[in-house]
Specification:
single chain; Chitinase A, domain 3; six-stranded antiparallel β-sheet; 9% helix
Length: 255
């Protein structure tokens, strides 16, 4: 990561809430008005980067309809690729880490004529409603997060070694949908660490693991399947969460 902020594993999400109710309004008037309340000192954001932000969303009268404080966790999303409302993708362009930006967003670039409504019929944002967001850019999520839930007491895995593992792969976090598992594939998974036969998040995240251990990996898209995903299994710009148990290490020949 560029800064020291480290998200809790439970918050790594790709919320589609922002775009789930978005639709074009019949009155496509107005543009996003951008005001930098605090100019950041870090690098400017780039398209496709996973941004970690805090935000407050209000109506024009100042009433809050949504916030990360209310949710109790920051929001993570890929910038500039259509995963959030257009007003965000347009209004956050050029923003720097550490900055806070006010976005005044007309309805057609926010939640459109349908508003932001849910299956129970309740609407957080009525249709054709202009909104205001204050967004603070905390960091860019571009580092593999590892956590040893069980520390092994056996041989340590290094590049060139053959690893025999059991694993479960989930989207976003340990509560996310399972997209793959060694049990689904019929048993232990065997690969050579450092050979390039697994995603880079595994190559970097499993080194040093010891036999008998279990490690959790939270892997940003840049170290996984990136902008393309894996058709039918992994969406584009997906954060992946793996639980990996190291069963055996076969050391590479020496000499």
């Amino acid at each position: 990561m560029r800064f020291l902020f480290q998200p809790r594993l439970s918050i790594l999400l790709l919320l589609l809430l922002f775009i789930s109710a978005c639709d074009s309004s019949s009155d496509n008037q107005g543009e996003v008005v951008v005001t930098d309340l605090v100019v950041g000192t870090g690098p400017s954001v780039l398209q496709g980067e996973m941004l970690i932000v805090e935000y407050v969303g209000t109506f024009l009268d100042g009433t809050t309809f949504d916030s990360t404080e209310e949710k109790g966790e920051p929001f993570i999303f890929p910038f500039g690729v259509g995963r959030v409302i257009k007003g965000w993708d347009q209004g956050l362009e050029g923003m720097k880490i550490g900055g806070t930006r006010r976005l005044e967003i007309p309805s057609h670039l926010a939640f459109g004529k349908n508003g932001q409504c849910f299956s129970n019929g309740e609407c957080a944002v009525p249709g054709n409603t202009d909104v205001i967001y204050e967004v603070t850019l905390l960091d860019v999520f571009d580092e593999i997060l590892t956590q040893d839930t069980v520390v092994g007491d056996g041989v340590s895995a290094e590049y060139g070694d053959v690893m025999v593992v059991n694993y479960i792969g989930q989207l976003t976090n340990r509560e996310g949908a399972v997209f793959d598992a060694s049990s689904i594939q019929g048993g232990n998974f065997v690969f050579t660490l450092g050979s390039g036969n697994v995603i880079q998040g595994w190559e970097l995240g499993l080194r040093g693991m010891k036999v008998g251990g279990t490690r959790e990996l939270t892997i940003p898209p840049v170290y996984a399947y990136g902008a393309y995903g894996s058709p039918g299994t992994i969406p584009s710009y997906a954060i992946l969460f793996f639980t990996v148990e190291l069963v055996e290490v076969i050391k590479r020949p020496t000499g």
